Model the fold of this input.
Amino acid sequence: MVKFEEAAIRKQKNVFICRSCKSKIRAPSLKVAQKKVSCRSCDSKKLRPKRKK
Done:
């Protein structure tokens, strides 16, 4: 149930979850696809997009 589409886009856009430690990272999707972004806490490069509710 989203009241404002702008708010939903802002909360979901460019948010990725680390597959190892489950921490959230906001980064451009192009850099994540090129494996240039790593997790801050565990240095893993395995990231997945945040699931939409």
In short: Residues 5-12 form the longest helix (8 residues). The beta strands are 15-18, 24-26, 47-49. The mean pLDDT is 90.
